[in-house]
Specification:
alpha/beta, Rossmann fold, 9 helices, about 20% strand, signal, AB_hydrolase_fold, EC 3.1.1.101, periplasm
Length: about 300
């Protein structure tokens, strides 16, 4: 089967979710870092990373998920690091396992973000609307864990700093979820695909800051048919960051049947993705004003690796 046909099949399937005081320093900033010091956000952050496989039951939804979190020591079910941390709910792409996004989950956790990845809607006929509800249910469950007796995450969740994210189908579902959840503070997603119901229509009703990250060489859910229409419909603040030479499957940890390719390597694309999305999350979730230049300023607008389009 030709790549054009494979891309067409993929596109068809893609289209068939009490306040606490701000911390004294951004959650991911290493202790003793001088003000104004540029951090390499493509590299792992200062936190050790733990992970836990959980069963989520909230808002009438039930599913399994994996949580990556800042930890006292790296490993499975290790103790959560001291402090309260923002939460990002991430949706996988069509027919993709959550394991394909492990490196991103670990990366965000190393910079101080709890990241929960629902494993639901993984079959051939997913419901985009239900997936959006699952992303929001994952956030609700994490908020509940902050006060749940015996929870590993007790007194560790910053319940007023919630975000949505996802790749491809999961990216589109994150837009749907944001339109339904007034508690969400921001969205950043990767190669977000149009969904049914329409992510583009949902974006038009969504006021929280949204970052769309795209690949210029994406032949599965490319910018012209997916991220650009969502961006154009979205109310400000909004941003479209297009990785030059990036491709659809470059956002995952490994490829598979029907994958496309780009003019840069997967390793380079993932390094750029981590840098761009982490600066956004630190700015909007961790109150790190030092990230302004990387998010909205000259550094963002003149980045040779990532095209910039945005309205602050």
């Amino acid at each position: 089967m030709s790549r054009v046909c494979l891309a067409g099949v993929a596109l068809l399937l893609l289209t068939a979710v009490p306040a606490h005081a701000a911390p004294s320093a951004p959650v991911g900033t290493p202790a003793g870092t001088p003000a104004g010091t540029a951090l390499d956000l493509s590299a792992p952050g200062p936190q050790a990373v733990g992970y836990s496989d959980v069963n989520v039951s909230a808002s009438g939804r039930s599913f399994s998920a994996r949580v990556y979190y800042p930890a006292v020591s790296a490993g499975n079910n290790t103790a959560v690091a001291a402090g309260r941390f923002p939460v990002v709910s991430f949706g996988h792409g069509f027919f993709q396992s959550i394991g394909k996004y492990a490196s991103l989950g670990r990366h965000w956790a190393s910079w101080g973000m709890i990241t929960i990845m629902p494993a639901s809607q993984g079959g051939l006929f997913p419901s985009h609307s239900a997936f959006a509800d699952d992303l929001n249910a994952a956030l609700t469950w994490m908020v509940q864990q902050d006060t749940a007796p015996g929870s590993r995450f007790g007194a560790h969740v910053r319940t007023d700093r919630l975000a949505l994210s996802g790749h491809s189908m999961g990216g589109g579902a994150s837009v749907l979820a944001a339109a339904r959840n007034p508690g969400v503070r921001t969205v950043t997603n990767l190669a977000a695909a149009e969904t049914n119901p329409s992510a583009r229509a949902a974006a038009a009703t969504t006021r929280v800051p949204m970052q769309l990250v795209a690949g210029s060489r994406d032949t599965v859910a490319g910018p012209s048919g997916h991220q650009i229409p969502i961006y154009e419909a979205k109310l400000a603040p909004k941003q479209l960051r297009t990785i030059v030479g990036g491709f659809h499957c470059g956002f995952t940890d490994s490829g598979g049947f029907g994958c496309d390719s780009g003019s840069i390597s997967r390793a380079v694309q993932q390094s750029i993705t981590k840098r761009v999305t982490t600066s956004w999350l630190l700015y909007y979730l961790a109150d790190d004003g030092g990230q302004y230049d990387a998010v909205w300023g000259a550094a963002a607008r003149t980045d040779p690796a990532v095209q910039f389009l945005g309205v602050e």
